[in-house]
Amino acid sequence: MDDGEGDRAELNFDEKNFLFEWLVENNKTLTRKNKELLVENLKLRSRLEELEKINFVDPTTGLHNRWYLQPRLEEEFSRARRTGASLSCLFIDLDNFKAVNDQHGHFIGDRVLRDMASLLRGLCRREDVLVRFGADEFVILLDSAGQRAAKTAAERIRGRLEAHSFNCGEQEMTLSVSIGVSTLKKEHVASSTDPWELVWTADGAMHLAKQKGAGQIHRLDCQGQGQKPAESERAAS
Fold it and tell me: Which listed residue, of 30, 33, 83, 121, carries a Cα 20 to 30 Å from 77's Cα?
């Protein structure tokens, strides 16, 4: 072997050694960057969860808010179509809540709303969807519940709330609720064109309940047509 071949063999060995060291260092760099990306992803995920909480959770009561209803309505309707079950909705409004704010202030009013939310949460099943819809309005989606089950749930809520004493600073007071009940029977679920019909039908029933006086319940059925019922069709039950 001449000198040129010897130098070439030594050069090949050095190249292999250099390549090995480069791969080791490059792997360390990639590992470090992967860790950094993982940390960033975890931070982003945490931030997204915070934003979701801000978007979907009512800060006063800790319940989900009305924006949470859209995805949950779609989920509940999809499940009902698969299982062939009925769906019901309760629209609950605190009677004369404005008087609480006027007489005791909004701080006490918020306390009453939190107390109300806690009571409703305790009266709901795990599969039910409870949200604060508006100022003193709450909505409950009742999974796999027909007319009788929905009416029973409304009666139970009305009785429990009317028996409860709300702490209003130096005094306690009782409050009544008006409840609208709507039901979409299983034979109408498949043909329903607008999941929100279940909610605004219950809302309409709640307003009709208020016309009867405080602490009343009124029920309306959905037909799954995506049309609001005419006044003449709103028969009390």
Answer: 121
